[in-house]
Amino acid sequence: MTMDTEKLIERLAEIVEPVRPLARPWIRTAAWLLIAIPYVALVVFVVSPRADLISKASEWRYVIEQFAALATGITAATAAFATVIPGYDRKFLFFPVLPLAIWLGSLGDGCVKDWIHFGPDGLSLQPDWFCFPAIVLVGAVPAIAIAVMLRRGAPLTPHVTSALGGLAAAGLGNFGLRLFHSQDASLMVLVWQVGAVCVLAAMAALAGRYLLNWRSIITTKDRSVLLHPS
Amino acid sequence: MQAAQGGDTEAYVLLLKEITPRVRQIVRGQRRFLKIEDIEDLVQDILLSLHAVRATYDPRRPFMPWLMAITRHRLADAARRYTRRAAHELQVENIPVTFSDEGSNIDSDGYRDPEALRQAIEDLSPAQRAAIEMLKLREMSLKEAAAARGTSIGALKVSVHRAMATLRKALIKDS
């Protein structure tokens, strides 16, 4: 850049267009859920819900786990939307910690109870390769939607923002998965489902730099003011 | 800023002109070692970033923390960019480009007698001569040369290595 700053200001003013201020994080989260929840419901409907869903809905453990997974997704989305607003309070980053702790705690508690009731057999671990692709399938549209929405913000912390976005989509994906996948053994859920959620969030974090960066946010039109000084 | 979000050009110019000295002061304060033009580059980068994400400003919230967050992150980005670039750059005081510099007079400059080189190639064994002709003069790939000669890539490599050693010896002896 060699252009005079005064001239740059004039050129930026020439190209400035009205913009609608971004809504607050929780309002954007609600907008995201309006896209994500119908999609998750559609996938569950197409794959067909598990046969014992009605009876499972009365099991407090299942309800807590599902509630915690959903809450993790929602709070992670809110935190992700907060991280793309400059000057926003960093305490938002800790929003998903509580539901995540409840989720992990309830699964951990389930593992202990399985051990007490069934001994070592209660903690047997078999491969369940269905979980990962299923979470990806259920979380795909929520992930795309949140990525598009996050790109409207400022890429201040791309890795953290992407990880939170990935956690939101995968959390919602896991919520949907348990509505049609009959796998309730706590250790299996912890390893194959929560594990998949963590892997997906980590992959999203790695992709953060490519997904959210200033190069793509600053449009060609904005850059043109530097290339064609008047 | 609220007026600028609505597309008010005059308000936008006023705002940018008002914040620029403050941004410049912050950049200068945190990057004392930079030259004036580099500081100005950073200021412009911050203004351009502010322009790109002006929709993220919430009129119900104070403006300065918003601006400071952008400034802080853009300065950190610039520092990371600089570190990445510096890690892949080799600092050289003076690149030897003139004939008086030793560095510019590479060994190949010593072999300036084409007749001696032609003679040395002629004196090579047939296998070594063929290898040199195909790989060095006709610039064929190892795979192509091996196919043309009906030999293996390994044997060809050995022939070239030996031929180069023979040529080096012969040309040094001549000079």
Provide structural commentary.
The complex is a heterodimer of chains A (230) and B (175). Chain A has 230 residues and is mostly helical. Chain A has one domain (5-227). Chain A contains 10 helices and no strands. In chain A, helix 2 packs antiparallel against helix 6 (131-150), helix 6 packs across helix 7 and helix 7 (158-180) runs antiparallel to helix 8 (186-211). By secondary structure, chain B is mainly alpha-helical. Chain B folds into 2 domains: 2-87, Rna Polymerase Sigma Factor, Chain: A; 112-174, Arc Repressor Mutant, subunit A (Orthogonal Bundle). Chain B contains 8 helices and no strands. Chain B has helices at residues 2-5, 9-30, 36-52, 63-87, 114-122, 126-137, 142-149, 153-174. Chain B is elongated. Chain B starts with a helix and ends with a helix. The interface between A and B is large, with 37 and 40 residues.
